[in-house]
Amino acid sequence: MAVPKRKTTPSRAGKRRSHIKISPKNIVEDKKSGEYRLSHHIDLKTGYYKGRQVLDPKE
Q1: How many Å apart are CA 45 and CA 37, to the nearest integer?
Q2: Is residue 55 part of a domain?
């Protein structure tokens, strides 16, 4: 079984984990309603997606 000969320093461990991070969500402002929503998602309040009505709006 492989066992490290020396203790791994925090900086070396941090370099190894540098790509493990939380990515920010892609939030955009809706052009019609002015509310924020995720891009490439339907606006549930208005029911619009890409400028056309695809759902009946929730009330």
Answers
A1: 10
A2: yes
Ramachandran quadrant class, 51 (left: phi over 0; alpha: psi -120 to 50; beta: rest): left
Which pTM was predicted? 0.53
In a domain, 37, yes or no: yes
**Residue 5 located in a structural domain:** no
- Alpha-carbon distance of 2 to 9, in angstroms, equals 18
Domain encompassing residue 29: 22-59
pLDDT tens, position by position, 17-26? 999 999 899 9
CA-angle at 26, arms to 24 and 30, nearest 5°: 145
